[in-house]
Write a structure and sequence with these properties.
Largest sheet: 7 strands, parallel
Helix content: 40-55%
Number of helices: 20
CATH architecture of the largest domain: 3-Layer(aba) Sandwich
Strand content: 15-25%
CATH superfamily of the largest domain: Glycogen Phosphorylase B
Strand order of the largest sheet: 3-2-1-4-5-6-7
CATH class of the largest domain: Alpha Beta
Mean pLDDT: 90
CATH topology of the largest domain: Rossmann fold
Structural class: alpha/beta
Length: 423
């Protein structure tokens, strides 16, 4: 069965090569990044005589954010350990290749037995952390063979996973390589217990620890504050074209004491130009200048209803200014991260594709989040959050309480990690 799995990985890798040859941009990045890594002749071992390493592997940027609080905790409490951070996807590697707390950041080579064997031998690893869904069985077997503890963090599984299918016996057996599972929900605990794994701890999602830290450290944005000019602010974050089209009518109906900040997922010039065409009165974030804004009258500021955030890296902190938030992606594959606005007590609205995210499902049930299916429903929910102060206050408090109930996963993981290594 391992041979069939390895053959599947080989065919998958070949498929990416073909896609890259035909010009698929992400596939080209995937191939080119690994080619450059081989060209650089990254040594098979770079250890000094007393170096000890911990390996963190994330599929992409979202999974990295789940692992980041644990990396930071280890660096703070056990600075003697060096960190190797690996990514499968270019969208994670390209953004975090210079992450300062990692001593080495690399693409993970394809999950072939020879790659896994070389990788595990390249450092004196004392532990490995795989984040959320990353099940690479040759790497897992190599870690087990070398006696290196393997921890899964922020893991979440469902009954439809191949581990729990009638044909899943071999896949379940591979989980013997895992020292401990730190999981997000009780459903995952039950599924693992039912197939014989008791080395499971329910601790929640580490990203809540991360976004809570971001909220505590949020810096002011004077230019944005001048744009808001005392108005109440709605933020539409991580939007795609179907999300942006929903707002075209409602923005024209905004009361004078409201404004909107729109932060699209795609900040390319062409896409920002499309948004500006939808909202002719809009202004781009990069056009704001604190000195110029100070020279404008308050009434002039109020004429600009829409601010387009045409840069990346600041959205998570801009939520501090929001009364409530719309999160994009729900009319495509899946909604984007709602944890960041929830941290600031912002009720959240999103499209119908949200059920893959536990926090979204939980908050819909608790009435801190509100799914919509069209522009009319968007208008109805927005109006109620704007006009019904008791309704808004209850939704906001629900979000704050939910966040408070979810933080603390990093502490639980660190306790388990230290017990496994030092006791």
């Amino acid at each position: 069965m391992l041979m069939l799995f390895t053959l599947g990985v080989l065919l998958y890798t070949f498929g990416i090569l073909v896609a890259a040859w035909f010009g698929h941009p992400k596939a080209k990045q995937w191939v080119e990044g690994r080619r450059q890594q081989r060209k650089a002749k990254v040594p098979e071992t770079v250890d000094g005589p007393n170096e000890q390493w911990i390996w963190f592997h994330a599929a992409s940027l979202g999974e990295f954010e789940q692992g980041r609080p644990v990396i930071e905790a280890i660096k703070q409490t056990h600075p003697q350990f060096k960190i190797l951070l690996s990514f499968f996807s270019p969208s994670g590697y390209e953004v975090r290749k210079n992450y300062p707390l990692a001593d080495e950041v690399l693409y993970l080579p394809s999950d072939m037995p020879w790659n896994a064997s070389k990788w595990v031998q390249r450092h004196h690893f004392v532990a490995a952390f795989f984040i959320k869904y990353e099940f690479w069985f040759n790497y897992m077997r190599a870690l087990k063979k070398a006696g290196i503890p393997l921890f899964y963090i922020s893991l979440i599984l469902n009954k439809n996973s191949f581990f729990f299918k009638p044909y899943g016996r071999w896949f379940r057996k591979q989980l013997d390589a895992v020292t401990h599972f730190f999981v997000q929900d009780e459903g995952t605990v039950g599924l693992l217990h039912n197939v014989g794994y008791d080395n499971v701890t329910l601790c929640g999602d580490t990203r809540f620890d991360r976004v809570a830290a971001i909220a505590e450290q949020a810096k002011p944005f004077p230019e944005v504050e001048r744009f808001i000019a005392g108005r109440k602010c709605i933020i539409a974050g991580s939007t795609w074209p179907p999300d942006e089209r929903l707002w075209t009518t409602f923005v024209q109906q905004l009361p004078d004491d409201y404004c909107i900040i729109m932060a699209p997922h795609d900040v390319s010039e062409s896409h920002v130009a499309q948004i500006k065409a939808m909202f002719p009165e809009s202004q781009c974030y990069t056009e704001l200048d604190a000195d110029d804004l100070r020279s404008l009258s308050l009434s002039k500021c109020r004429l600009t209803r829409v601010l387009i955030v045409n840069t990346i890296g600041i959205l998570s902190q801009l939520y501090q200014y929001a009364r409530f938030v719309y999160i994009g992606g729900g009319f495509g594959v899946n909604i984007h991260n709602i944890q960041e606005p929830v941290t600031f007590g912002c009720p959240v609205i999103f499209g119908p594709k949200y059920t893959n995210f536990k926090e979204a499902v939980d908050l819909v049930a608790l009435q801190g989040a509100f799914p919509i299916h069209d522009a009319d429903e968007l208008s109805t929910v927005c109006r109620r959050l704007m006009d019904d102060e008791a309704f808004y206050a209850k939704a906001s408090e629900t979000c704050r309480k939910y966040l408070k109930s979810q933080i603390g996963a990093t502490k639980i993981i660190m306790q388990g990690f230290e017990k496994a290594l030092f006791s």
